[in-house]
Amino acid sequence: MVMLNRRNFSKFSIFALAGTRLPLFAQTPVADHKPVGYAAIGLGVISDLFIRACAESKTAKITALVTGHPDTKGKHYAAKYGIPESSIYTYESFDRVRDNKDVDAVYVGLPNSMHREYTVRAAQAGKHVLCEKPMAISSAECSQMIAACRTANVKLMIAYRVHYEPTHLEAQRIIQSGALGELQAFEGAFGFNAKPNQWRLTRQYGGGGALMDVGIYPMNEIRWLLGEEPSAITAVATTRDHTSGRFAEMEQTLDWTMKFPSGVVAALGCTYGEDMPGFLRIHGDKSSLELTNAYSYQGAHLANLGGAHVDTTTKGEATLHFQIQAEHFANCIRTGVEPKTPGEEGLRDLLAIEEIYKAAGTPIA
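RE: above sequence
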């Protein structure tokens, strides 16, 4: 068991780097009638969802693309979404985005190990940053990203989409209402059967195994719903598939427990070795909730384990989560308010992830 204290979760804090004062954002506000323009960095599966989501929005719009395939993927998306070809950038030419007045922010949808570089470069170009989770592959990189955005007076938000998803927000409301009584325990898991030759199965790009990619979902949600950081962690990592070669660089499955200062405990699991539908069970001394299909792109379902008085499923397209968070960040840019999921939230997750890997005896990055 790894015992944690407040220092574990503050040693890389931005407040140690730059004091506790919040930054003043110097960028010219976006006009109320004009959608906030995003440059999508990377054109993989998750960026495709984000681009489609912005196409449905009145307040967020894709105005530039960054890709290693400008003449194929770049031109395809530009034609489909009305983006001028002059606003297609390569990774090498990305820094020229500073001169594009139609770009207010970037969406970083790249492999994990590239998040730090493109967040820092975007900040230096004067653009706000919406970065996918995990924020980076180490807490040290997270602190560098926070510091870069603070220095440049731009906003940084981490794309924890369940914080904005209606069914998860309903779970939070029920907990805060006291209907479950005093919280006692959480259970959760998420995983899938990863195909060979994916970047996420390499330490160079993934930084770690399933915990970084899918385990982070229930871990982050518990921290969010409970409002506490873990004080003790146990963990075990295992690999059963020694023949396919998929897990040469990382673990196949990881299970861990977290104890919180209030006494609440959580038992969680994640894997790249089998399909493990995402779920979260929340137990109080009066009642319990269960979120099923919890971390998929659509159809999250919330029910009460002791009765039928809570039974709700999120309706809508797979892009709904992405649209809500894109519009939230757009509103933050317009109004100057802080995002609900700032860089500090991503930093706290990486601090916890590092402790989980330490408890499991598995190195990270």
